[in-house]
Amino acid sequence: MKEFLRSILSALGAYSTGTVLPALLLMLIGLVVIRIIMHLVHAMLIRSKLEKAAYTLIKSAVRVILYLLLALMVASMLGIDVSGVVALASVLTLALSLSLQNVLTNVIGGFVLLTSHPFNSGDYVEIAGQSGTVMEIGLTYTKLNTADNKLVSIPNSAVTAAQIVNYSANDLRRVTVSVAASYDTPVEDVLSALLEVADIPGAAQDPAPFAGVEAYEDSAIRYTLRIWCKNEQYWDIQFEANKRVKDVFDQRGIAMTYPHLNVHLQQK
Q1: What is the CATH number of the domain that holds 71?
Q2: CATH number of the domain encompassing residue 137
Q3: Could you tell me the residue range of the domain that residue 236 belongs to?
Q4: For residues 21 and 82, is the Cβ–Cβ distance under 8 A?
Q5: Looking at residues 255-265, what average pLDDT do you find?
Q6: For the residues of 175-220, what is the DSSP string, one character each?
């Protein structure tokens, strides 16, 4: 233990007081400056529109860079050759980057998502074939809660490369109901019945509900009904409209047909 203390004292004695004191002063000033800078960074992040998950990443990266720069400046003032340290750090960084390539790709993808805002926590989205409510935008994974209450974690690299459909981006969302009716029923009667179906509490009137002919099929005419509503009422309006179609059509005597085939037999 005594030999260890002697080695430390001898190492410190190798530097003159005129070198050590300025280095200590630089270190103290640097710590104060780092603290001020981190306070400013924190204030900027609070005022920004970034997700909370990005705060830790940005603050940690800035803190590491500042402390590293301060350490190099102090070492250089003490007369230590920092070129070897920089070279070693570069090699280690390269090796670490190669070994953690997938992780770094996901981290970069997470930073892109947190800064570009294609969606936010709580939005209902469709990503890479998965649909659900965004529960968390992490540094490596984006987590969705599906309609049947399954938690799906998608790598951020896959999220940034996939097509993203954000159903919550706008206030209104359109409900579409497609039904088929017999050729024997006048078109205007079916259109009038569909507009009656659209008379649902919560359905928007601007844009107004729309009913039209979608296609003339082999066994029936296909109609479409479009209803606009608030995002949070989408599923309620969708289910209620599907229910009301049968009720209104029965009241008006409109037959909903199904595919059928007429076979004619000829006796010789």
Answers
A1: 1.10.287
A2: 2.30.30.60
A3: 172-252
A4: no
A5: 70
A6: EEEEEEE-TTS-HHHHHHHHHHHT--TTB-SSSPPEEEEEEE-SSS
